[in-house]
Design goal:
The structure is a homodimer of 416-residue chains. Chain A is of the alpha/beta class and 416 residues long. Helix content of chain A is 39%, strand content 18%. Chain A has 17 helices and 15 strands.
Chain lengths: 416, 416
């Protein structure tokens, strides 16, 4: 069963979790002075509208009409009850997922790419620079820039640029320019942290260019809250008062935040972040100030981190290979409002294949982390004999990650 | 704007166009005797339920409940108004498309794979054999067999098996076995016609195995009519009495038939088939009896054909590289009820890129043929100053065809 909403039911405001957080957020610090950054420090990178959203304590922020017009190309996304998975697990749990894979770029990322492109164009910016790892974020921003007529320059981690050409082709089809990063070290495989450095350097160096980030920051998580808001309405249509447990995979935190933040005010809803064992930021990192990038050009953020020079192993869930985490997610975990768990990639791909064979769709490796945790929770519900309601985020499809499935099926995946 | 229907609105019967055809269909002939084939001739390949549908003249055929349950995993599919494309073309035409790319396999093919797997399982068959070119049909049948617990063996055209591994990985993820064809000539690149021969040989040789075909036959087109039936309802919701023109790409004819056949009884609706210039079956072929495969093992069908030994050039729209056409489509074209047009692939990819940059999604190369014809029709409407209503079939996404886009963007595509 799927619950659809008409295009008129896309939420018209973003939900700001900041007033609902159990502890107040610590401010970002300037990388040189270690003093709290002000709006003028961020102005070379972001338009004022986004800077305002980054620090806003307003409970709701209106979504501009032209942004809604574009979101309605694929939103509201379906809420699906995974009945065949329930049957396969013989669980009394009721399992729902919110399917963000239906966007043109195939993930939740366009939810923030679209407003970011919009606000930049409104501010007179003609060109955006960004980084991308495996390409989910870069392709989302390329899509958004195509629709708003902006130039887009994507610094893509060199290893992905060379080994995974198809998301690069997507970006080029939408008209973006894609180059391998680090730009000044053609023999280096690159990392997300160093690609951020390249993109920030580009944006700071050109008058007509701003920088755009696909996760971590408050305004990015804010834009993603359309996911959880829609899911709340759809769960009501499905006859559920609330989910007992909300599960999302967590790299920088935007997918998890988008689904989970609207449920934060309800203490009866448990929240679970799922990360890879090989990049265990929330489960094994330290809660402290750290840079968002490798070169130390970004502000310092108060977050769980493995250290800004941490280089995760090359697991297939490229979107979860980040040394830090969103300050909002970090605060929720640090306060105990949200739990976190880590899983190794072979167990994650076993869950993904099981899902594909019973539900029919092939999930992204990142999404498969949430599926692994969902299956564990559904089995626990069976053992407890409790009809728990589980909602997980289907953040993206795996159609551009099929090499990972080939490696898994051939027994070639490592758990490092 | 998109028009969605609830899952309860999946049509509960297939529409049989046979009673509405302007001329009666000529019967298939036995390849050896050249006499009309009877049910017993087909029994080694198909279950009786499908043989009955192949020759039925009933106007409606009920869809079994267990088939509906699976179709509802992704159906009804969206009807989308392509407003941004209309604006880009400055046309008074209203352009709608029916989006079949949302299925788990990414195309319309599961609409028939699911009932075919169901009827075979009901008949006690444990294993299905089929052929696939680029892999759209093979992946659809692999998906359906996974859900019904059937074994599936796919003979994949060797050139695609080696050059396009990702749809093969999809099939393997769903648990199917995939081998390159022709099986007995490891140095041969293969063709769809010879892969059909391999699959038929497999099915004839094993008691537990039937054969499954993804296009051409009457029962396949019948299963696809859920597409056009849903589109009719959705057009009403959109305030349109009827489309003036229905456009679909045409290889074997199942996508086009699925969308167009329910409109055949309304003489005010024009129907247009779009095929590649390099495989111009309807526009340059002969209407006569010919074999469906290369080896001459299948019945002879009355259809437009380029000859069963015709080998089309290796264009990227693999699903349109077939020497023949469905007898139903052939009869409609032969009688004048349906028109046909052919386009070269560079013009087709130009249309695809234009579509991706204004509407946001990247279409399959096959689908791009319909988009090219739609753009031409919308421009003609502008020149005539007429607000025509155009409906086209968005048969699949292009996410596993990105190499074709890379070749196009690099200027490497040939028009043969």
């Amino acid at each position: 069963m799927r619950w659809m909403l008409p295009t008129t039911e896309v939420p018209e405001a973003w939900f700001n979790v900041v007033p609902h957080l159990p502890t107040s957020l610590q401010p970002p610090l300037h990388p040189a002075t270690r003093e709290p950054v002000g709006p003028q420090d961020l102005a070379p990178l972001f338009p004022m509208a986004l800077i305002g959203q980054e620090v806003s304590a307003e409970p709701w922020i209106d979504i501009p009409g032209p942004v809604l017009d574009v979101l309605r190309l694929w939103r509201p996304t379906p809420l699906v009850r995974a009945r065949r998975l329930e049957q396969a697990l013989d669980t009394p749990a009721r399992i729902y997922f919110k399917d963000e894979s239906v966007s043109p770029a195939g993930s939740h990322k366009p939810n923030t790419a679209v407003p970011q492109a919009f606000y930049n164009r409104e501010a007179g910016v003609r060109r955006l620079a960004t980084e991308t790892g495996a390409g989910q974020w870069g392709s989302a921003l390329a899509f958004a820039c195509a629709l708003y007529g902006l130039e887009c320059k994507v610094y893509m981690v060199r290893a992905s640029y060379e080994q995974k050409p198809y998301r690069r082709v997507m970006m080029e089809t939408w008209g973006s320019s894609v180059v391998p990063s680090p730009v000044d070290r053609p023999d280096h495989p690159g990392s997300l942290g160093s690609a951020i450095s390249d993109a920030v350097r580009d944006a700071v160096g050109r008058e007509d260019t701003h920088y755009s980030l696909g996760s971590v920051l408050n305004h990015v998580l804010l834009h993603q809250t359309v996911i959880g808001q829609e899911a709340k309405v759809q769960l009501q249509l499905a006859g559920e008062e609330r989910p007992d447990l909300v599960i999302g995979c967590c790299g920088g935190g935007s997918n998890l935040g988008g689904l989970a933040l609207p449920f934060v005010p309800d203490p009866k809803v448990a929240l679970l972040a799922v990360e890879p064992s090989s990049c265990p930021t929330l489960t094994a990192g330290r809660f402290e100030y750290d840079f968002g990038d490798t070169a130390g050009m970004t502000p310092l953020l108060a977050m769980y981190t493995l250290g800004h020079d941490f280089v995760p192993p090359p697991i297939h869930a490229g979107g979860l290979r980040y040394h830090g985490d969103a300050p909002i997610i970090s605060a929720l975990v640090h306060s105990g409002r949200m739990q976190a768990v880590a899983h190794p990639q072979t167990a994650v791909f076993e869950a993904a294949v099981q899902f594909a064979r019973v539900q029919g769709t092939i999930p992204a490796p990142e999404t498969a982390h949430a599926i692994k945790a969902t299956i564990d929770a559904a089995v626990a519900a069976r053992e407890a004999g409790e009809p728990r309601v589980i909602l997980f985020g289907y953040s993206g499809h795996g159609l551009l990650d099929l090499q990972a499935y080939a490696d898994h099926l051939a027994g070639r995946l490592a758990d490092d």
